[in-house]
Amino acid sequence: MAKRTKSAPSPANTPTLHRFFSPVQTSGAKYDRPNSVAGAPASAATPEPAARKENQAADDDDDVPITQVKKSKRIIVSDDEDDNDNDVVQIDELPSPRPLKKRTPLSDETLSTPSHKRVRGLDDFRTPSKPAQDLLSSVKASPALASLDSMTFSTLSSSASASRKVDFADNGRKSSVPRAAKSAVDTDSRPSWQVNPRDKKGRTRDDPNYDPTTIMVPTAALDKMSPGQRQYWTIKSTNYDTVLFFKIGKFYELYDDDALVGVKELGLLLMKGDRPHAGFPERCFDRHAETLVNRGFKIGRVEQMETPNELKERNQSTGSKSKVVNRELCSVLTKGTLVDSNMIGHPNTSYLLAVCESKGSVEYGICLCDTSTAQFQIGSFNDDSQRTRLRTLLASAAPVEVLYPAQGLSSVTSSILKKDLPHDVIRNPLRNAAELTDSVTASEKIQEYFPSGKLPDIVSSSGDLALLALGATVFYLKRCLLDQEIVPIGTFVHYDPNDMDPRFMALDGQTLTNLEIVQNSEGGTQGSLLEFVNHCVSPFGSRRIREWIIRPLARPKDITCRLDAVDDLIRETSARDGFRAALRKLPDLGRILSRIHAYSFGRDSKAVMYENVGAAKLKVFLGVLDGLREASSLIPKFLDESTSIVSPLLKSLLTTGDGFPDMTEKLRYFENAFDIAAARRDGFIVPAEGVDSDYDDAEREIRNAEERLQAILKETRKDLRDSSIKFVDKNRERYQLEISESTISRLGGLSDDYEQVSQRKGFIRYYTADIKDAVFQFDRATEKRTSALSGVMRRLFAQFCGDFALWTSAVSVLAELDCLCSLALTSEAAPDGGVMCRPEFVDPVEEGAAVLSLRRARHPSLTMSSNATFIPNDTIVGCEENPAAFVLVTGPNMGGKSTLLRQTCLCVILSHLGCYVPAESCLLTPVDRIFTRVGACDRILAGQSTFYVELEETATILRHATRRSLVILDELGRGTSTFDGTAIAYAVARHLSHEIRCRTLFATHYHVLSEEFAEDEAVSAYYMASQLDTTTNTVTFLYKFVPGVCPGSFGINVAKMAGLPDDVVSLAEAMAKQFEDAVTSAHGKSVAMQLRRCLKQSDVEGIRSLIKGLRV
């Protein structure tokens, strides 16, 4: 593909470059605020313009800061006819910076400096503060459009006569600004339609169908507004729940209630005026938008879609008299719809979840959407009365935003969505009929996004509820202006609950929480199993390993295959470390690929931006090309440097054309499509020949026009016999034929074909008809080239996204390799220096007991702690040493029972993950599901006590556990009376040991259970050993798990260790001994025998009668 000489487009006409406006020197009007009423609500009408000054330009009806001052240079880009022909950027040296007649907003950096106090915040607005803090400074505003016109930053001063000046820095410039008089906003002047808003259908807020996304603006109010106010409220009326960042010139403005949000959450300053008004520079958009979105706000970005010059041209061509430039809502940002990895700020997946529920049955349709990678998981499932699968979905996916019908959900589901999710999750009830339509209509609307007109197989085979959830998701994406960017390239996969897919071990929501699989109780990852195994160096690898740990493998064949790959990577240390070092340098390719598609769609490509947005997009694209090129070379290099890879899985992943896609030809095309070095330097793309037909045609026409002009010049020199004749450019008059006066005199003058256009001393410049025609052809071709060049980057992005599946498959392989390397690092050496072993799996026997043998095992998370030495323990279930599948665990308080139970489960999960286990040996029969009943908690908001929640979780275990399951229960029954709890614990233990016969660790302080199951072959007893010093009455915990029954719980000793007052401990010790003596007396033995009989018959009333008969 041939290279060509780069010809830079005109900056003023190319969206990929900076776009400034023509200079107009004007001054803005000021607004003075009346005194505020403390604690009064903020008003929300946009300020009306004050009278313009006489010297303001008549055509200054828009908001154009003309001259950008940086330090001591004035940079002007102008389209005026008096400028030079090429519209070049002029840099004029100024003797010193001077304040411009424009609004100079204060940056956050300025406000944080010690010498500049924040002049006015929301607290100042609502409640008068100390006089020393009531300081106001005003900065003149730039000329604004007639509707949202010249605003002036203002701040409170301690007195109206204060005249001391304060310097504020902005973009390297200081301006001396006098303090303004103390003023405030009149908060009682809002119109009634804002004080008591109605939605677009006239419903008030107390109406259950009220739509908070809209507001009805009366026609009479609109008629009284200026054109700009009308433009603002037209957009705001359909986005009433959105904080609008409204672009005026190079600033984003916030008005009314939105301005108060900006003041409180962002530390912005209120400007002078009779309504709240704040703003910030364009360059601060990402930072401020990220802050508000992470705090739960919905952000709308409104951009100018034309310049003032384009406004004039539109008025001239259409005959209209519009006084405001066109503006459009270009993007809506919410917590669940962020697509920019920089704005997301972390590698974890931020899911948007849509939930639909059937009427009359417990069936759900769900859609999980990751907008940053354009991935959709859709499916439907039946659930139990406790909504176990729904709770598991919420715990494993951890959505940041949830969509659900405002009406139609059961009370249980509504309670779960409102109360079980973390408080910072955004909940969006859907009220509009268009948001929740029928499945047929949803399917038809989704089909429109695919050029072939055919739905993806996963979508077409989904049930009605799943289609409804997907339809709601797509509609919401449409409201956020993301549908066209995400849906057409979406990757659709079927969602199955963990317990419905036999390929994976099922971990329900309670287990994920109790075992701290992906996060600890405080919401962080410290101490979690994810922290133990996650050594990934790429963001896409970190996301993948989280998916793995939530859904461990269940089939021994798959686990063995992954373990073999881990073994290879343990041996290939050098090749592995080199691969990881190179992978660490790659950007987040998974997320950036979807951004490239968004750029190709170009929803806001016509927006007038002061920052070089095109260059920023190009930088992202070049980063992707660099990353994919590096990735394509990493794979063969990894394979070449490896010496003993035997794993079929690893061989496949490292073989180009097999597991890893061959991207060579595709990447070579884009590398030759343009000069990458020049594009990186200049910030725009000039396509090579054959890449863009529109640009090629324009280039060809330009060459033809230039050749024709050169032919005219050559012919003229020959006719006039003067080789010094040349073309010169003057202003916009190009290719003027410059002829010396001496030549003209020698020839006795020129013919009438030569038309004089300009002159200089000794020379006269002419046009001829041929030159005019050739120049016209040249100018037209140049405009055509500029137009083609302005869209070439977008077209190249679209072409790149035509192979979206190829790029994403490459990223998927890189993520899997990163995860395997992470497991190899985990397996290679434990953080505590202890041994790690490869787990061995025993094929399940139909009638035989399931096996679990862990020798000298350690808690994975505690191996990362350097504070104490952890004592390893054996856990033997279903083996020759302990044939019983049910283990009754006793031991003193603080003896380590709960730690042992969790440690056992975590080691099993690690083995199913395909990772080595912190133990000397690990032998087990595959586990299909892990159940946990650990800890005590209640659901106050749902009206459920600790004991109720405990029994509800136990019921789930008894309902779903199989012979291949692993169950741990910790102190079941402690939430009620001793004997009620004992009876329930006995009944549950007997059902698990004799009916289900699954591997169970049952920790309890009810020692009567040990006596009851003492001769039961299906139950074995183990306890956490301790040692009592009778002389000092102190307990030493040995933390060893040994066969037998603990002689006591040593609760009194623990109470003493905890620091209870001595008199309280002494009384408790006396009462404990008195009760023990009574039970062990002859009468007590009789009672014990009767109690055992009552327990066997589950006679709760009989147990209560026995207790009443005891006299202690």
TrEMBL record:
GO terms for cellular component: MutSalpha complex. SMART domains: MUTSac, MUTSd. GO terms for molecular function: ATP binding; ATP-dependent DNA damage sensor activity; mismatched DNA binding. Residues 38-49 have a biased composition (Low complexity). GO terms for biological process: mismatch repair. Residues 965-981 form the DNA mismatch repair proteins mutS family domain. Keywords: ATP-binding, Coiled coil, DNA damage, DNA repair, DNA-binding, Mitochondrion, Nucleotide-binding. Residues 7-16 have a biased composition (Polar residues). Residues 164-173 have a biased composition (Basic and acidic residues). It comes from the Eukaryota. Residues 1-136, 164-212 are annotated as: Disordered. Residues 688-715 form a coiled coil. Component of the post-replicative DNA mismatch repair system (MMR). PANTHER family: DNA MISMATCH REPAIR PROTEIN MSH6, DNA MISMATCH REPAIR PROTEIN MUTS FAMILY MEMBER. Belongs to the DNA mismatch repair MutS family. This is DNA mismatch repair protein.
